[in-house]
Automatic annotation (TrEMBL):
The modification N6-(pyridoxal phosphate)lysine is found at K493. Its cofactor is pyridoxal 5'-phosphate. Belongs to the alanine racemase family. Signal peptide: none annotated. InterPro entries: Ala_racemase, Ala_racemase/Decarboxylase_C, Ala_racemase_C, Ala_racemase_N, Mur-like_cat_sf, Mur_ligase_C_dom_sf, Mur_ligase_cen, MurE/MurF_N. SUPFAM superfamilies: Alanine racemase C-terminal domain-like (SSF50621), MurD-like peptide ligases, catalytic domain (SSF53623), MurD-like peptide ligases, peptide-binding domain (SSF53244), MurE/MurF N-terminal domain (SSF63418), PLP-binding barrel (SSF51419). Its EC number is 5.1.1.1. This is Alanine racemase. It comes from Draconibacterium halophilum. Pfam families: Ala_racemase_C, Ala_racemase_N, Mur_ligase_M.
Amino acid sequence: MINLTAKQICAVVNGELFASSSFQDFTVSEVITDSRTFFGGQNVAFFALTGPVFNGHNYIAQLRKKGVQLFIISDKNFIDDKANYILVKDTGLALQQLATYNRNQFSQPVIGITGSNGKTIVKEWLYDLLSAELKIVRSPKSYNSQVGVPLSALLLDAQYELALLEAGISEPGEMQKLAPIVQPNIGILSNIGDAHQENFQSKKEKLNEKLQLFVDAKKLVFCLDRPYSKPIAKFCLGNNIEPINWSFENDEATIQFKSKAAANHTKIEAKTRNKSYSFQIPFTDESALENACHCFATIVALEKIPDVFLERFSKLEPIAMRLEIKQGINNCLLINDYYNSDLNSLGIALSVLKQQAAQSHLHKHVILSDIHQTGIETAELYSKVNQLLQEWGINKLTGIGEALYKHQYIFQMESEFYSDRNEFEKHFIRSNYSSSAILLKGARQFAFEQISALLQQKAHQTVLEINLNALIHNLNSFRKLLRPETKIMVMVKAFSYGNGDVEIARLLQHQNVDYLAVAVADEGVQLRNAGITIPIVVMNPEHDSFQNIIDFNLEPNIYSTQLLHQFAKVVAEFGLCNFPIHVKIDTGMNRLGLKTEKEIDELISFVKSNKHLKIQSVFSHLAGSDDPELDDFTHEQFTRFAHLSKQIETAFDYKVDKHILNSAGIERFTDHQMDMVRLGIGLYGISQTGLQLQQISTLKTTVSQVKTVNAGETVGYNRKGKTRQQSRVAVVPMGYADGINRRLGNGLGSAFVNGQEARMIGNICMDMLMLDVTNLKVSPGDKVEIFGPDISISKLAQLLETIPYEILTGISQRVKRVYLQE
Ligand SMILES: *Cc1c(COP(=O)(O)O)cnc(C)c1O
């Protein structure tokens, strides 16, 4: 943690201080950039970061209420006498300057890690291997971005003996900014893969960018068995860096490895210049092996004696990279984090807890294991934990572990303590858990996944897993195609194309999209009730729903003269003025919309003489924007829209937004973005032009039963699934009532079981389907994927001769939606 006065910070960032003279000595020990994850605390400075879609200045008032007194800003219009400000040109740069300053105060070794894959795992494993010997500070989770790296570097202080910082990049030019903040003494280049390739010309360009992190390093750890090892060696030579390279093939390497995989572990032999070592890791996959080799080589680079650490390699654990949010019993929400347990990560997890609890008005309950943090006396450690829990307004604590049990007197909230997990489970009563957001935060060995299993709602094992990071990726991919000022309306109709509306709408609101659009008013009401405040357009406003539209501040799509008159009448009854409406023009789809010049003239004269309504936007919908054969027609639609919308635009003295592009339109006719675009299917990961999008959802379940079926027997209803040979069949608890199209049965469709493809056999039933798993390794409880990373939704749509929209929206509401976010 830093410890600097406002005046010192001002000097470091080259700013201008607007504060009372007594405030200049105010000390800052915590820096924040995200208002969502801050709920109280003193000695805090907020950096109001700005980006193309984000303006941190907008959160100043809110944060002032929460007690923040110092703001680093770049817009002087926000200066007032209600708080204290440091004015700078660029707040992002100021954050980096402060982080660099703090890094320069740190005289102990810093290990900097970059690469396409494995950064976080290598960092966490090194921590697990070394932390019994050294006091280590490390980047929380995968804080490796332009903001995450400075925030991590601000955690460095004199009490630590080693720092582990990871740095990630997605665009050229980014590493130059991160390098001075990290300034590693020892570098690790984990792996150069395809991740984040889209913004680089070539892998070589990306490699060169990554290497910029290490220009001032003394040593660099890397693998020699990769195609790119030569340029890395050259880079080391040119920059006077000692290469600590390793290899399975090359006798010249600093460290030569041999490995032998067994059923559930891998034996590794390592040969350095003067000695041989052997150890094992409890994994058998290639990437674990690679990560372990990086860790061993880093220990060599640190000039530590490897023998001390060998035993610990066999105890390395998989690293769950994400906080998992699940539906729990009795209207509880579970937030699982068995990733690590230290104060930093506890802070992050608590912020997520607070956020989730606030959104659904739930109690905040933390189930916490003993924290193994070196270098701090136990009573002091738990006093800090108590303080953290209080700051975050935690209602209840369940402490599990000897140390917590012993120090229970410290905690000042409703609490209960158990000496170990078994004790907890003995006293577990289901009905004690209701309407709470529960954070499960435990060190690995406490096996909190067992507690999670108790608390998890298990009515139906089938889930649609939605990756919110992929969704953000997709949103940003579209944003990059657009001008910065073009507004975005995201279509969240039909439960966000089947992906579940509220969580997605929340995320979109946070990502500053301009509008959401729903099909009917009820969907809009649900979003308002869930705390969505941005404008919401109702595409199909029915007469019965006008009251709701007005009460919940929704904005109707006006597609006919009749609807216009009806709606105006109700608004007038409410006595409201300038109620926003969106006018739909039919330019060739022949669905909803005003079609003729005459209708539009009538609309204009009606609205002009009616103070109750205001035309917020005018729009039209393309009939075939995804189909090159229809491009002539699409251009006719553009022309017609230009003509008819102009009529409206020129008739009013206020600005009327115009928009026509849907997802495929944005990809294929970017020039027609006008004032706004309406993004739908693309956000959910389907591209018509090969734009690099990520599929956001995985439909999955687990095998219920596996059985042997003899040759000549049949499987399922009407005996449609015949077996020619003795076969093995897996029964899967998912059927057409879940939205699996029944036509996929009888061999048309397949599923992935344990990463192996298995064809469907027999008719699909209402709640079950059967897979032919002859010759595959499958047992009950194994994971089954219907679509996801291994089976794309587009492929499934092709198989069924339909469109991805139908597949997505067809997944029934009884399938639980589970959200993942990094
Ligand atoms: C659903 C919808 C969209 C989004 O279409 P995609 O093809 O999913 O991008 C855009 N505009 C209107 C009017 C819609 O109804």
